[in-house]
Amino acid sequence: MDRSGTIIHVSSTFAAGLLFLAIFLSGLSIVLLVRKWHREPDRGAAPDWSIPTIDAYADTPSFFHNWDPAVKIGSLFPYCFLVVSLKSLFWCAVALIVSLLALFFSNIPWQRGLRRLTAMSGFLLMFLLIVPFTSPAKPGETLILLPMLDSLPFHLNGFYLALTIVIKAFAIALMMEPMLGTSSLPITLQGLVRLGVPSAIIQMILLTHRYIFVFQQEIIRMYRSMRVRGFTARTDFTTMKTMGNFFGMLFISSFDRTQKVYEAMLCRGYQGSFPTFSLPQTRREDLAKGGLWIMIGILLLVFDRTLPVLAP
Amino acid sequence: MHQINSNYRDDSGQKVQELLFKLDGLSFTYPDGKTALREISLAIRRGDRIALVGKNGSGKSTLVRHLNGILPLQSGSLHYQGKALTPGILAAMRLNIGILFQDPDNHLFCNSLYEDVAFGPMNKGLNRDQVDQLVKSCLDDVGLLHLMYKPAHQLSYGQKKRAALAAILAMQPEVLILDEPTANLDPKQEQIFKKLLSAFQGTLIIIDHDLLFLYDICDRAVVLAEGRIHHDYSFQELVSQQHALREHGLDFTFRFSCCGKDHHHLSASSHHHHHPTHDHGTNDSHATAADKTTPILELQHFSYQYPDKTAGIIDVNLIVRPGEAIALVGENGAGKSTLAACLLGLHRGEGFFFSRGRQLDQGLRRSLWKQIGMVFQNSADQLFCPSCWEEVAFGPQQMGLSTNEVELRVAEALHNVRLTGYEKRVPLNMSGGERKRLAIAAALSMQPEVLILDEPTASLDPQSQELLLDILNHLAMTRILITHDMFFIRELSRRTLVMHQSRIICDYPTSSFLADTHLQGINGLDYTYKNHCLEQIMDLQDQNRG
User: Fold this and answer.
1) Which chain B residue's Cα is nearest to A264?
2) Which residues are B230's β-sheet partners?
3) Interface of B with A in 130-159 (CB under 8 A)
4) Considering only Cβ atoms within 10 Å of each terminal Cβ, which end of chain B, N or C, has fewer?
5) Residue A37 located in a structural domain
6) pLDDT at A71 over 90
7) A208 within some domain
8) Which of A149, A139, A144, A186 is nearest to A7 (CA)?
9) How many Å lie between the alpha carbon of B165 and the closest alpha carbon of chain A?
């Protein structure tokens, strides 16, 4: 291993201080989250279901709400691929800012974006912790030696690499809200149909989104009835047999339900496709918005390649 | 067996309406070899209001699934408005025939109520404004306009059932077919159905075991037995002939001792007030009532909130003593099943929970299942084994009993529910009534001190109900019965708890509950509205005997 680059030795006191700070901040976040959970007075209050859920976040149409879903997906999706192609930390951070601005202008509450990021933060945090210690050493790179971990140096390059990936992931995850959260699911799926996605796949997505909750409820009810008869999952043959019966019965009931849902659809005039009112024609304005986003993506990529700042 | 294929409208000299369906020699056999329909010949005219009745498994659902071409014709003929069913006619015909199946989840396959209700009208080719107007009007009729954009999975069972009806009505069908429309609904929601169906102007075909519900709605009865039409006459004729009712498992006259005429459970000995005492001990629990037997279960100031912070039960005080027979009533969503789940230890709430005088700790909670048995509303949720023997043996095996003891308990439990000889039968292939009894046997084999039954009579034919009543009457253990069925409440309970909006609002003897005229004002539940139907039917039967 070439160790001719900079090596920074971190003193025990400094490392302990950092560790303490990290633990303190984590603890504080947990306490604040728990207190917020308990304080929230209106969680039990029923939302107003007399208006479409998507409109609950936008009284006036936003830049993204007004956009033809086909063009919106057709341009934001390639934009996301362009963001994935970025290499330097700086331009990834710019992409993250673009995503934050998009979230802001889409009139979607920031909490929704935060929830999305929280869901993936566990995995990304592990990534941030592991990659700096395990990435291959490069000539001239800076290594940080932590107390009692002399054989496992912290690679600054590896840290940049992990940070770049995390920021790219955040930037793309945040773009999902303006891309998919500013139209209802059926409208978004209609957009996908316009983009050439087969209608059968779209119907499967629609039905899956609906019935995943029904099957979830069935699983909960059936497992509950096993629990009240004393069932506790163990690592033994009896548990395997019981779970085999459980999944077998679930399969049969799912199959049965599929048949019945299909019959109910036939009874209401289903002839192979979900009825939709046709979407409005694509306007020049929609195409201009699409062009703008593709342009932003291309510019980011060009700057990333020509002016790399903090590239790992 | 005798076949009466009279067209009562012709005989009575009334105006004969246009023929809508003409079935001739229709037979159907399922792929497993079970013959469901045999030589069915039937004429249905525009404006007919038919009650299609018969035992579970008599072929009713199979017959209506032929009426809009879901099942293919195997033999015989079926004509709709004089035309044989061809693929071209089928598509148009289905848009004019609305079928409401038993399970509302099968009807609600879109992502919001609006989309679900709009599905049919959109398939009819109506324009956006017409669809919008229809959707709103139909949702308003079933009282769900304020939930227009709610996803179906977030609705209660009663709301789903009403939403499914709205989805059918929005198609403006000329024929409306309903399969068990009111199963598991509280009296208030039943009334909504009754009002809408009474107002429906088209042809109506209803499959239901609740003849009292059908009494004011239908004027013609078609009785099926073993796949054949046994009777086809006026509804009044059906209910006035007790022997015919009994022959087809429809005899609900075992319920006739109600109507406020025979309240023989007048003892107030079991009465205790909802808040018996508010003396609190040092730990804030109620002071011990030393003079009474130790309760099996006791809740004090017990509340439970769902993870989304919706109230499940609020400040419940409840004492369950050995040998008590308790009925738990209230509107759909009042918190009855949640209370049962709390008693089973499935939900951990706040407050005090005592079992045999000991406050519930982690260890005691884990062993609650040995003490309390539960029969869930839907037997399908409870039965998952490949044979009846294994199903009933599951609980005792989890208790770690010896093989001999397990065999003894299984045999006894199956005997108690009249299912001896069913050991090797596959639960999935059994009738609704048999499955319900099997679910009870599965709980009984654990010999619990308390047995909780959630809506045991739902979807059962009167004969199965009568058998169930007999079985439950012979159980010696403490019983908690969750039901809307007034007759079962009266026959099987001595004490009634009324729940409303997550609280127990009344806790009194069943006799007082039956005489309580104020409940309707509190929770909108009218448990007595069927009494006048019963009285009229009793008069009809008396006249028939005379």
Assistant:
1) B107
2) none
3) 145-153
4) C
5) no
6) yes
7) yes
8) A144
9) 12
| Dist. CA A245–CA A234, nearest whole Å | 15
CB A91 within 8 A of CB A300: yes
Q: How many CB atoms lie within 10 A of CB B363?
A: 7
Q: In what order do the strands lie in the sheet with B372-375?
A: B372-375, B450-454, B478-482, B325-330, B495-500, B503-509
| Chain B residues 443-462 with CB within 8 Å of chain A | 443, 446
Look at chain A and report how many structural domains it folds into: 1
Rounded average pLDDT over B348-355: 91
Taking CB atoms and an 8 Å cutoff, what residues of chain B touch A274? 119
Pairwise CA distance, residues B214 & B212, whole Å? 5
Give the DSSP H or E segment for A5: none
Is residue B26 within 8 angstroms of chain A, CB to CB? no
pLDDT value, residue B522: 60
Q: Is residue A73 part of a domain?
A: yes
B508 CA: distance to closest CA in chain A (Å): 29
**Residue numbers in A near B311 (CB within 8 A):** 44
**Rounded-to-integer distance, Cα B95 and Cα B104, Å:** 19
Whether chain A has a CB inside 8 Å of the CB on B311: the answer is yes
| Domain hosting residue A158, numbered range | 46-306
In a mutagenesis test of the A interface, which of B109, B116, B132, B453 is the best target, namely the one with the most A β-carbons within 10 Å?
B109
Work out the average pLDDT over B484-489: 84
Within a 10 A sphere around the Cβ of B78, how many other Cβ atoms?
18
Nearest to B149 among A50, A227, A246 (CB): A50
Residue A161 inside a domain? The answer is yes
User: CA nearest B164 in A: which residue?
Assistant: A264
Task: Flag if B394 and A249 touch (Cβ within 8 Å).
Answer: no
In 3D space, the residue among A166, A257, A170 whose CA is nearest the CA of residue A214 turns out to be A257
Task: Establish if B399 touches chain A: CB-CB under 8 angstroms.
Answer: yes
What is the mean predicted confidence (pLDDT) over B128-146? 93
Please classify residue B87 by burial: count the beta carbons closer than 10 Å to its beta carbon, then call 0-12 exposed, 13-18 middle and 19+ buried.
Answer: exposed
Judged by DSSP in three states, B540 sits in helix
Q: Does the structure show a pLDDT above 90 at B391? A: yes
Contacts of A264 in chain B (CB under 8 A): 99, 101, 106-107, 109
Contact across the interface for B346 and A257, Cβ inside 8 Å: no
| Integer Cα distance of B475 and B323 in angstroms | 10
Q: ipTM of this predicted complex?
A: 0.80
pTM (two decimals): 0.76
Residue B259: is its pLDDT beyond 50?
A: no
